[in-house]
Specification:
Helix content is about 45%, strand content about 20%. It is of the alpha/beta class. This is ABC transporter substrate-binding protein.
């Protein structure tokens, strides 16, 4: 080897070593992680958070603690995470009600989703179902549409809460089929199901994690689901598009970091969460818990949330729905 080539080789190795060292020290170390869930234990968000957190603990080899901070539809948890100090590793597992709907329907909330938070990773999606009582003569979406147009004053749609995603999805559906339904907001899913089974409500819209067991138990009949393809747990139920209704929509659960978290940590966590949610075993666990797995890093999550906002915001704003505090 000539002196020039030796010098060039040594220089190249030195530069590579410096580059590698720089990269290895560029990422801020993450020694622990707290995941805040805005809802009570046992719900869909809580299950998703705990399933992913367990896998994240195994992958990163760090303590991952899940904390439930309930109240005000998730806004208390969002404010708590927003105010987290920069040296704390805290994420919130939030859904559209917190990050998209609340800013549009409340005149004043204690956080701004776009400036107070950073998207980290979307981990699950969930669909909606259009359901009738199992005793109803309505068997298909086509029959429901025909009935709704013939009985406009009776087309009442029960939803678990006024201002919820099922509420606004009901408005989307009414617009799409050309028959205005009256949205009836309840205080939770249980009374909706009770009135649907009892024949008091002709139609209900709720998330599939609520409706699926009732359908499988033959207490209600899901006419169609809102996703892009049939649900694994509901192979007998067509999508809305398969039923001739050009409507597709879903909600989601995604991890967000406070704006104070360094960008390199956000990237690290986004890639780590995407990696664990890409694992077939974890995906199977999510599916068994009636959660549709999603694998997305920070940038991919931002894109998907913006697409969601563009679809839903016009409907929410056009409804004129507002909550006064």
């Amino acid at each position: 080897m000539t002196k020039n080539r030796l010098r060039a080789t040594l220089t190249s190795c030195l530069l590579s070593g410096l580059l590698f060292t720089g990269l290895s020290h560029a990422a801020t170390p993450i020694e622990d992680l707290t995941v805040v869930v805005p809802y009570a234990p046992g719900g869909a968000s809580d299950r998703a958070a705990r399933i992913v957190s367990d896998s994240l603990h195994q992958k990163l080899g760090i303590p991952v603690v899940v904390e439930n901070k309930t109240g005000a539809g998730g806004r208390i948890a969002a404010q708590y995470v927003k105010n987290t100090a920069a040296d704390k590793n805290v994420l919130i597992l939030a859904n559209p009600a917190i990050m998209v709907v609340a800013p549009l329907v409340f005149n004043d909330i204690p956080y701004k989703p776009d400036s107070d938070f950073q998207a980290v990773s979307m981990v699950t999606e969930y669909g909606f179902g259009v359901a009738v009582s199992a005793d109803s003569d309505i068997k298909t979406m086509d029959q429901l549409i025909t009935w709704a147009k013939a009985h406009p004053g009776a087309f009442n749609i029960g939803v678990p809460a006024t201002g919820s995603l099922p509420h606004f999805f009901g408005l989307m559906l009414s617009q799409q089929i050309g028959s205005k339904g009256e949205i009836i907001g309840y205080r939770g899913s249980a009374p909706v199901i009770t009135d649907l089974i009892g024949g008091i409500l002709p139609v209900a819209i709720d998330t599939l994690d609520v409706l699926t067991a009732q359908h499988q138990g033959k207490r209600i009949r899901i006419l169609a689901t809102s996703g892009s393809e049939r649900e694994t747990a509901l192979p007998d139920v067509p999508t809305l598009k398969q039923s001739g209704v050009e409507l597709e929509a879903s909600g989601w659960n995604a991890f967000f970091a406070p704006a104070s978290m360094p960008a390199d940590k956000v990237t690290q966590l986004g890639e780590a969460i995407k990696a664990v949610t890409s694992d077939p075993a974890l995906q199977e666990t999510l599916l068994k818990n009636e959660l549709i797995p999603v694998s997305a890093n920070a940038e991919e999550t931002r894109v998907r949330i913006e697409q969601f906002r563009q679809q839903w915001a016009p409907v929410i704003q056009a409804s004129g729905f507002k909550v006064t505090q």
